[in-house]
Amino acid sequence: MGYGDHFTDASNTTVEDADVVPETSKLPLLSPFQLGPFKLQHRVVLAPLTRARSFGGIPQPHNAVYYAQRATPGGLLITEGTGIVADADGFPNMPGIWTKEQVEAWKPVVKGVHDKGAFIFCQIAHVGRYSHTSYTKGAAPVSSTNRPITSTQILVASGDALADFTTPRALTADEIPQFVDLFRAAARNAISAGFDGVEIHGANSMLIDQFLKSSVNDRTDHYGGSVENRCRFLEEVVESVGNEIGFDRVGIRVSPFVDDIGDASDSDPASLAVQIAKSLNKFRPLYLHVVEPRFHFSSEQHRATEDSLWPVRREFKGALIAAGGFNRENGNDAVKEGRADLVVYGRWFLANPDLVARFQADAPLNMYDRSTFYTPDPVVGYTDYPFLGEKLQEKPGEKKLGEKLEEKLDELKV
Ligand SMILES: Cc1cc2nc3c(=O)[nH]c(=O)nc-3n(C[C@H](O)[C@H](O)[C@H](O)COP(=O)(O)O)c2cc1C
Protein backbone atom coordinates (compact mmCIF):
# COMPACT_ATOMS: atom_id res chain seq x y z
CA MET A 1 0.00 0.00 0.00
CA GLY A 2 1.29 3.44 -0.88
CA TYR A 3 1.27 6.67 1.04
CA GLY A 4 -2.32 7.76 1.59
CA ASP A 5 -3.99 5.00 -0.38
CA HIS A 6 -6.66 4.47 2.26
CA PHE A 7 -8.30 7.67 1.09
CA THR A 8 -11.09 6.83 -1.32
CA ASP A 9 -11.42 10.22 -2.96
CA ALA A 10 -9.31 9.59 -5.99
CA SER A 11 -10.10 11.36 -9.22
CA ASN A 12 -8.68 14.26 -11.18
CA THR A 13 -12.05 15.86 -11.39
CA THR A 14 -13.21 18.96 -13.14
CA VAL A 15 -15.86 21.29 -11.88
CA GLU A 16 -17.46 23.12 -14.77
CA ASP A 17 -17.87 26.49 -13.20
CA ALA A 18 -15.56 27.59 -10.41
CA ASP A 19 -17.69 30.71 -9.95
CA VAL A 20 -20.24 28.63 -8.06
CA VAL A 21 -17.93 28.80 -5.01
CA PRO A 22 -19.82 30.84 -2.45
CA GLU A 23 -18.19 34.02 -1.17
CA THR A 24 -18.72 33.21 2.46
CA SER A 25 -18.93 29.96 4.26
CA LYS A 26 -20.02 28.74 7.63
CA LEU A 27 -17.46 25.96 7.64
CA PRO A 28 -15.39 26.10 10.84
CA LEU A 29 -12.27 25.48 8.73
CA LEU A 30 -13.03 28.59 6.71
CA SER A 31 -13.63 30.90 9.65
CA PRO A 32 -11.08 33.62 10.46
CA PHE A 33 -8.48 33.29 13.19
CA GLN A 34 -6.14 35.82 14.76
CA LEU A 35 -2.77 34.08 15.00
CA GLY A 36 -0.74 36.52 17.06
CA PRO A 37 -0.05 39.43 14.70
CA PHE A 38 -1.42 37.53 11.69
CA LYS A 39 -5.03 37.95 10.70
CA LEU A 40 -5.90 34.67 9.04
CA GLN A 41 -9.03 34.44 6.96
CA HIS A 42 -9.27 30.65 7.21
CA ARG A 43 -7.68 27.74 9.04
CA VAL A 44 -6.45 25.54 6.21
CA VAL A 45 -2.65 25.56 6.43
CA LEU A 46 -0.14 24.19 3.92
CA ALA A 47 1.98 21.52 5.62
CA PRO A 48 5.74 21.58 5.44
CA LEU A 49 6.41 19.27 2.48
CA THR A 50 9.87 18.38 1.25
CA ARG A 51 9.63 18.44 -2.54
CA ALA A 52 13.32 18.06 -3.42
CA ARG A 53 13.30 20.61 -6.22
CA SER A 54 15.64 23.33 -4.94
CA PHE A 55 18.67 22.47 -7.02
CA GLY A 56 21.96 22.84 -5.21
CA GLY A 57 20.05 23.88 -2.08
CA ILE A 58 18.93 27.12 -3.77
CA PRO A 59 15.21 27.97 -4.12
CA GLN A 60 14.22 28.12 -7.80
CA PRO A 61 11.62 30.07 -9.81
CA HIS A 62 9.44 26.95 -9.98
CA ASN A 63 9.42 26.84 -6.18
CA ALA A 64 7.90 30.34 -6.28
CA VAL A 65 5.19 29.12 -8.65
CA TYR A 66 4.36 26.16 -6.41
CA TYR A 67 3.96 28.23 -3.25
CA ALA A 68 2.08 31.06 -4.97
CA GLN A 69 -0.37 28.51 -6.40
CA ARG A 70 -1.25 27.48 -2.85
CA ALA A 71 -1.51 31.00 -1.42
CA THR A 72 -4.89 32.56 -0.66
CA PRO A 73 -5.77 35.86 0.99
CA GLY A 74 -5.22 35.47 4.72
CA GLY A 75 -3.92 31.90 4.36
CA LEU A 76 -0.87 30.43 6.09
CA LEU A 77 1.81 28.40 4.32
CA ILE A 78 4.71 26.56 5.91
CA THR A 79 7.69 25.80 3.69
CA GLU A 80 9.36 22.46 3.27
CA GLY A 81 12.13 21.60 5.73
CA THR A 82 14.95 24.04 5.00
CA GLY A 83 18.54 23.37 6.01
CA ILE A 84 20.31 25.64 8.49
CA VAL A 85 23.87 24.69 7.55
CA ALA A 86 25.68 22.89 4.73
CA ASP A 87 25.54 19.44 6.32
CA ALA A 88 22.02 19.72 7.76
CA ASP A 89 20.37 18.05 4.75
CA GLY A 90 19.18 14.50 4.34
CA PHE A 91 17.07 14.81 1.19
CA PRO A 92 18.21 15.53 -2.37
CA ASN A 93 17.76 19.15 -3.48
CA MET A 94 16.47 20.28 -0.11
CA PRO A 95 16.60 24.09 0.11
CA GLY A 96 18.75 25.88 2.64
CA ILE A 97 18.80 29.26 4.33
CA TRP A 98 22.35 29.68 5.56
CA THR A 99 23.92 31.60 2.65
CA LYS A 100 23.27 35.04 1.21
CA GLU A 101 22.52 33.45 -2.16
CA GLN A 102 19.80 31.31 -0.58
CA VAL A 103 18.30 34.28 1.22
CA GLU A 104 18.14 36.20 -2.07
CA ALA A 105 16.61 33.19 -3.83
CA TRP A 106 13.87 32.88 -1.19
CA LYS A 107 12.81 36.50 -1.68
CA PRO A 108 10.77 35.96 -4.88
CA VAL A 109 9.16 32.89 -3.30
CA VAL A 110 8.04 34.92 -0.31
CA LYS A 111 6.97 37.84 -2.47
CA GLY A 112 4.80 35.62 -4.65
CA VAL A 113 2.95 34.43 -1.55
CA HIS A 114 2.63 37.90 -0.05
CA ASP A 115 1.36 39.29 -3.34
CA LYS A 116 -1.59 36.94 -2.98
CA GLY A 117 -2.26 38.14 0.55
CA ALA A 118 -1.01 35.03 2.36
CA PHE A 119 1.58 34.54 5.12
CA ILE A 120 4.52 32.19 4.93
CA PHE A 121 6.72 30.63 7.62
CA CYS A 122 10.03 28.94 6.85
CA GLN A 123 10.49 25.53 8.44
CA ILE A 124 14.09 25.52 9.65
CA ALA A 125 15.58 22.08 10.00
CA HIS A 126 18.64 20.05 10.86
CA VAL A 127 18.33 16.38 10.00
CA GLY A 128 20.94 15.18 12.51
CA ARG A 129 21.54 11.46 12.09
CA TYR A 130 18.87 11.18 9.37
CA SER A 131 21.75 11.52 6.95
CA HIS A 132 24.54 10.01 4.97
CA THR A 133 28.10 11.01 4.09
CA SER A 134 26.92 12.06 0.61
CA TYR A 135 25.24 15.02 2.35
CA THR A 136 27.98 15.73 4.88
CA LYS A 137 31.07 15.60 2.64
CA GLY A 138 32.24 12.48 4.36
CA ALA A 139 31.84 13.65 7.96
CA ALA A 140 29.81 11.75 10.54
CA PRO A 141 26.37 13.34 10.94
CA VAL A 142 25.65 14.74 14.39
CA SER A 143 22.96 13.57 16.78
CA SER A 144 22.09 13.09 20.43
CA THR A 145 23.56 9.60 20.11
CA ASN A 146 26.31 7.55 18.46
CA ARG A 147 23.80 4.97 17.24
CA PRO A 148 22.67 4.97 13.60
CA ILE A 149 19.21 4.43 12.14
CA THR A 150 19.15 0.77 11.16
CA SER A 151 15.56 -0.14 10.31
CA THR A 152 15.57 1.46 6.87
CA GLN A 153 17.80 3.15 4.30
CA ILE A 154 18.27 6.66 3.00
CA LEU A 155 18.15 8.14 -0.50
CA VAL A 156 21.66 9.49 -1.15
CA ALA A 157 22.26 13.11 -2.16
CA SER A 158 22.38 12.32 -5.91
CA GLY A 159 18.83 10.96 -5.53
CA ASP A 160 19.45 7.75 -7.48
CA ALA A 161 20.49 5.17 -4.90
CA LEU A 162 19.72 3.93 -1.43
CA ALA A 163 22.35 3.47 1.25
CA ASP A 164 22.59 2.65 4.93
CA PHE A 165 22.38 5.64 7.23
CA THR A 166 25.81 6.83 8.30
CA THR A 167 26.74 6.22 11.92
CA PRO A 168 26.44 9.57 13.71
CA ARG A 169 28.50 11.04 16.46
CA ALA A 170 26.86 12.40 19.60
CA LEU A 171 27.28 16.14 20.08
CA THR A 172 29.17 17.01 23.24
CA ALA A 173 27.37 19.35 25.63
CA ASP A 174 29.98 22.00 24.80
CA GLU A 175 29.10 21.85 21.10
CA ILE A 176 25.36 22.22 21.57
CA PRO A 177 25.39 26.05 21.77
CA GLN A 178 26.86 26.17 18.23
CA PHE A 179 23.90 24.20 16.96
CA VAL A 180 21.44 26.35 18.85
CA ASP A 181 23.10 29.30 17.17
CA LEU A 182 22.67 27.79 13.70
CA PHE A 183 18.91 27.81 14.25
CA ARG A 184 19.10 31.42 15.46
CA ALA A 185 21.11 32.53 12.41
CA ALA A 186 18.76 30.69 10.04
CA ALA A 187 15.79 32.44 11.65
CA ARG A 188 17.48 35.79 11.18
CA ASN A 189 18.09 34.91 7.52
CA ALA A 190 14.45 33.89 7.10
CA ILE A 191 13.29 37.27 8.33
CA SER A 192 15.79 38.95 5.98
CA ALA A 193 14.25 36.98 3.12
CA GLY A 194 10.86 38.41 4.06
CA PHE A 195 9.33 35.39 5.80
CA ASP A 196 6.64 36.20 8.37
CA GLY A 197 8.23 33.81 10.82
CA VAL A 198 9.87 30.43 11.23
CA GLU A 199 8.72 26.99 12.22
CA ILE A 200 11.38 25.10 14.17
CA HIS A 201 11.39 21.51 12.93
CA GLY A 202 11.29 19.37 16.04
CA ALA A 203 9.35 16.50 14.43
CA ASN A 204 9.75 13.35 12.35
CA SER A 205 13.13 12.08 13.51
CA MET A 206 15.10 15.25 12.75
CA LEU A 207 17.88 16.48 15.10
CA ILE A 208 15.62 18.04 17.75
CA ASP A 209 13.36 14.96 17.75
CA GLN A 210 16.51 12.87 18.25
CA PHE A 211 16.96 14.71 21.55
CA LEU A 212 13.27 14.51 22.50
CA LYS A 213 12.68 10.79 21.96
CA SER A 214 13.72 8.24 24.55
CA SER A 215 14.53 5.53 21.99
CA VAL A 216 17.23 7.73 20.43
CA ASN A 217 18.53 9.95 23.23
CA ASP A 218 20.87 7.80 25.33
CA ARG A 219 22.77 10.71 26.87
CA THR A 220 23.84 10.81 30.49
CA ASP A 221 24.41 14.59 30.64
CA HIS A 222 21.73 17.22 31.28
CA TYR A 223 20.38 16.84 27.71
CA GLY A 224 19.37 13.22 28.33
CA GLY A 225 17.56 10.99 30.79
CA SER A 226 14.47 12.68 32.20
CA VAL A 227 11.80 14.02 29.89
CA GLU A 228 12.63 17.54 31.11
CA ASN A 229 16.27 17.05 30.12
CA ARG A 230 15.33 15.69 26.70
CA CYS A 231 13.33 18.88 26.06
CA ARG A 232 16.32 21.10 26.94
CA PHE A 233 17.82 21.36 23.44
CA LEU A 234 14.41 22.31 22.00
CA GLU A 235 13.95 24.91 24.76
CA GLU A 236 17.36 26.43 24.05
CA VAL A 237 16.64 26.64 20.33
CA VAL A 238 13.25 28.25 20.91
CA GLU A 239 14.68 30.75 23.38
CA SER A 240 17.52 31.74 21.07
CA VAL A 241 15.33 32.01 17.95
CA GLY A 242 12.62 33.92 19.81
CA ASN A 243 15.11 36.38 21.27
CA GLU A 244 16.42 36.97 17.75
CA ILE A 245 13.19 37.47 15.80
CA GLY A 246 10.44 37.81 18.43
CA PHE A 247 8.46 34.94 19.98
CA ASP A 248 5.34 35.97 18.08
CA ARG A 249 7.10 34.86 14.90
CA VAL A 250 8.10 31.44 16.15
CA GLY A 251 6.21 28.19 15.69
CA ILE A 252 7.41 24.73 16.70
CA ARG A 253 6.53 21.42 15.08
CA VAL A 254 6.76 18.19 17.09
CA SER A 255 5.60 14.61 16.63
CA PRO A 256 5.83 12.92 20.03
CA PHE A 257 3.50 10.10 18.97
CA VAL A 258 5.17 9.34 15.64
CA ASP A 259 7.21 6.16 16.12
CA ASP A 260 7.80 4.87 12.63
CA ILE A 261 10.32 7.27 11.10
CA GLY A 262 14.07 6.92 11.58
CA ASP A 263 13.82 4.59 14.62
CA ALA A 264 12.58 7.48 16.78
CA SER A 265 9.92 6.63 19.34
CA ASP A 266 9.15 7.50 22.92
CA SER A 267 8.32 5.20 25.81
CA ASP A 268 5.67 7.65 27.05
CA PRO A 269 4.65 9.94 24.19
CA ALA A 270 1.66 11.44 26.01
CA SER A 271 3.90 12.67 28.83
CA LEU A 272 6.49 13.89 26.34
CA ALA A 273 3.80 15.86 24.52
CA VAL A 274 2.65 17.56 27.70
CA GLN A 275 6.22 18.29 28.81
CA ILE A 276 6.95 19.91 25.44
CA ALA A 277 3.94 22.18 25.95
CA LYS A 278 5.14 23.06 29.47
CA SER A 279 8.69 23.73 28.29
CA LEU A 280 7.45 26.01 25.52
CA ASN A 281 5.01 27.93 27.71
CA LYS A 282 7.98 29.64 29.36
CA PHE A 283 8.56 31.50 26.11
CA ARG A 284 5.04 32.03 24.79
CA PRO A 285 5.85 31.20 21.16
CA LEU A 286 3.20 31.83 18.51
CA TYR A 287 2.12 28.27 17.92
CA LEU A 288 2.72 24.62 18.60
CA HIS A 289 2.17 22.29 15.66
CA VAL A 290 1.63 18.66 16.62
CA VAL A 291 1.21 15.54 14.51
CA GLU A 292 -1.86 13.54 15.57
CA PRO A 293 -1.40 10.37 17.65
CA ARG A 294 -3.79 8.52 15.35
CA PHE A 295 -1.60 9.23 12.32
CA HIS A 296 0.70 6.42 11.31
CA PHE A 297 3.35 7.42 8.81
CA SER A 298 4.35 4.18 7.15
CA SER A 299 1.01 2.41 6.96
CA GLU A 300 -1.01 5.59 6.51
CA GLN A 301 -3.82 3.90 8.35
CA HIS A 302 -5.26 5.79 11.25
CA ARG A 303 -4.33 3.74 14.24
CA ALA A 304 -6.74 3.10 17.06
CA THR A 305 -5.38 4.88 20.10
CA GLU A 306 -6.55 6.21 23.42
CA ASP A 307 -4.19 9.15 22.98
CA SER A 308 -5.36 12.49 21.70
CA LEU A 309 -4.05 16.04 21.46
CA TRP A 310 -6.40 17.24 24.22
CA PRO A 311 -3.80 17.14 27.04
CA VAL A 312 -1.38 19.21 24.92
CA ARG A 313 -4.20 21.50 23.91
CA ARG A 314 -5.08 22.14 27.54
CA GLU A 315 -1.47 22.65 28.61
CA PHE A 316 -0.17 24.85 25.81
CA LYS A 317 -0.87 28.56 26.12
CA GLY A 318 -0.47 29.56 22.44
CA ALA A 319 -2.28 28.50 19.27
CA LEU A 320 -2.38 24.81 18.45
CA ILE A 321 -2.03 23.45 14.92
CA ALA A 322 -2.87 19.81 14.27
CA ALA A 323 -1.55 17.67 11.40
CA GLY A 324 -1.82 14.16 10.10
CA GLY A 325 -4.51 12.50 8.02
CA PHE A 326 -7.02 15.34 7.99
CA ASN A 327 -9.71 15.72 5.36
CA ARG A 328 -12.49 18.28 5.02
CA GLU A 329 -14.79 16.56 7.47
CA ASN A 330 -12.48 15.71 10.35
CA GLY A 331 -10.63 19.02 9.93
CA ASN A 332 -13.90 20.84 10.43
CA ASP A 333 -14.65 18.70 13.47
CA ALA A 334 -11.24 19.46 15.00
CA VAL A 335 -11.85 23.22 14.73
CA LYS A 336 -15.50 23.01 15.78
CA GLU A 337 -14.70 20.96 18.87
CA GLY A 338 -11.78 23.25 19.75
CA ARG A 339 -9.17 20.48 19.50
CA ALA A 340 -7.08 22.70 17.21
CA ASP A 341 -7.06 26.31 16.05
CA LEU A 342 -5.64 25.51 12.64
CA VAL A 343 -5.40 22.34 10.59
CA VAL A 344 -2.46 21.43 8.40
CA TYR A 345 -2.93 19.59 5.12
CA GLY A 346 -0.04 17.78 3.48
CA ARG A 347 -0.83 15.39 0.67
CA TRP A 348 -4.20 16.93 -0.17
CA PHE A 349 -2.71 20.41 -0.46
CA LEU A 350 0.20 19.05 -2.49
CA ALA A 351 -2.27 17.68 -5.06
CA ASN A 352 -4.88 20.46 -4.84
CA PRO A 353 -3.35 23.92 -5.16
CA ASP A 354 -6.84 25.36 -4.68
CA LEU A 355 -7.67 23.19 -1.68
CA VAL A 356 -9.36 26.04 0.14
CA ALA A 357 -11.75 26.73 -2.76
CA ARG A 358 -12.45 23.01 -3.08
CA PHE A 359 -13.31 22.76 0.62
CA GLN A 360 -15.55 25.78 0.23
CA ALA A 361 -17.34 24.28 -2.77
CA ASP A 362 -17.22 20.76 -1.32
CA ALA A 363 -15.68 19.81 -4.66
CA PRO A 364 -13.90 16.50 -5.29
CA LEU A 365 -10.14 16.43 -4.79
CA ASN A 366 -7.33 15.52 -7.15
CA MET A 367 -5.56 12.38 -5.96
CA TYR A 368 -1.88 12.87 -5.21
CA ASP A 369 0.76 11.01 -7.18
CA ARG A 370 3.22 9.54 -4.74
CA SER A 371 5.73 8.72 -7.46
CA THR A 372 6.44 12.42 -8.01
CA PHE A 373 6.61 13.57 -4.37
CA TYR A 374 10.40 13.86 -4.40
CA THR A 375 11.33 13.79 -8.09
CA PRO A 376 13.25 16.81 -9.44
CA ASP A 377 10.94 17.75 -12.32
CA PRO A 378 10.04 21.46 -11.92
CA VAL A 379 6.56 20.91 -13.33
CA VAL A 380 5.39 17.31 -13.33
CA GLY A 381 3.77 16.35 -10.06
CA TYR A 382 4.67 19.78 -8.73
CA THR A 383 2.98 22.73 -10.39
CA ASP A 384 0.79 20.81 -12.85
CA TYR A 385 -1.94 19.62 -10.49
CA PRO A 386 -5.14 21.08 -11.95
CA PHE A 387 -7.24 23.79 -10.38
CA LEU A 388 -11.02 23.48 -10.34
CA GLY A 389 -12.20 23.62 -13.94
CA GLU A 390 -8.91 22.43 -15.39
CA LYS A 391 -7.87 18.96 -16.46
CA LEU A 392 -4.42 17.47 -15.96
CA GLN A 393 -2.72 17.30 -19.33
CA GLU A 394 -1.47 13.84 -20.19
CA LYS A 395 2.26 14.02 -20.90
CA PRO A 396 3.29 10.49 -21.80
CA GLY A 397 6.81 9.59 -20.82
CA GLU A 398 7.36 12.43 -18.41
CA LYS A 399 6.74 10.35 -15.34
CA LYS A 400 9.41 7.78 -16.11
CA LEU A 401 11.80 9.20 -13.55
CA GLY A 402 9.03 9.13 -10.95
CA GLU A 403 8.25 5.55 -11.77
CA LYS A 404 11.90 4.65 -11.36
CA LEU A 405 12.03 6.20 -7.92
CA GLU A 406 8.70 4.74 -6.88
CA GLU A 407 10.21 1.35 -6.07
CA LYS A 408 12.90 2.96 -3.95
CA LEU A 409 10.41 5.11 -2.10
CA ASP A 410 8.25 2.06 -1.51
CA GLU A 411 11.19 0.42 0.16
CA LEU A 412 11.75 3.54 2.25
CA LYS A 413 8.07 3.81 3.10
CA VAL A 414 8.17 7.59 2.92
C1 LIG B 1 6.06 14.56 0.28
C2 LIG B 1 6.10 14.82 1.76
C3 LIG B 1 7.10 15.61 2.27
C4 LIG B 1 7.11 15.93 3.64
N1 LIG B 1 8.07 16.78 4.12
C5 LIG B 1 8.01 17.22 5.40
C6 LIG B 1 8.90 18.25 5.84
O1 LIG B 1 9.73 18.79 5.10
N2 LIG B 1 8.78 18.64 7.14
C7 LIG B 1 7.86 18.08 8.00
O2 LIG B 1 7.79 18.49 9.17
N3 LIG B 1 7.00 17.13 7.58
C8 LIG B 1 7.03 16.71 6.30
N4 LIG B 1 6.12 15.80 5.85
C9 LIG B 1 4.99 15.41 6.72
C10 LIG B 1 3.77 16.31 6.42
O3 LIG B 1 4.03 17.65 6.81
C11 LIG B 1 2.48 15.84 7.14
O4 LIG B 1 2.70 15.82 8.52
C12 LIG B 1 2.08 14.46 6.67
O5 LIG B 1 2.01 14.40 5.27
C13 LIG B 1 0.71 14.09 7.23
O6 LIG B 1 -0.25 15.04 6.83
P1 LIG B 1 -1.31 14.70 5.66
O7 LIG B 1 -2.05 13.48 6.14
O8 LIG B 1 -2.19 15.91 5.59
O9 LIG B 1 -0.56 14.44 4.41
C14 LIG B 1 6.11 15.41 4.51
C15 LIG B 1 5.12 14.58 3.98
C16 LIG B 1 5.10 14.29 2.62
C17 LIG B 1 3.99 13.43 2.07
The structural class is alpha/beta
Number of domains: 1
CATH structural class: Alpha Beta
> Approximately how much helix is present in the residues?
25-40%
The CATH topology is given as: TIM Barrel
Please state the CA-atom Rg, rounded to the nearest Å.
20 Å
Question: How many H/I helices?
Answer: 13
| Overall outline | globular
Q: Kindly report the name of the CATH homologous superfamily.
A: Aldolase class I
- End-to-end separation: 12 Å
Given as residue ranges, the uncertain stretches (5+ residues, pLDDT < 50) are: 1-24, 394-414
| Mean pLDDT rating | 89
Strand order of the largest sheet: 3-4-5-10-11-12-13-14
How many strand elements? 14
Q: Strand content of the residues, in percent?
A: 5-15%
Q: Main β-sheet: number of strands, strand sense, barrel status?
A: 8 strands, parallel, barrel
> What is the CATH architecture term?
Alpha-Beta Barrel
* Heterogens: flavin mononucleotide
Order of helices and strands: EEEHEHEHEEEEHEHHHEHEHEHEHHH
Family: Belongs to the NADH:flavin oxidoreductase/NADH oxidase family.
Pfam families: Oxidored_FMN (PF00724)
Keywords: Flavoprotein, FMN, Oxidoreductase
GO molecular function, one term: oxidoreductase activity
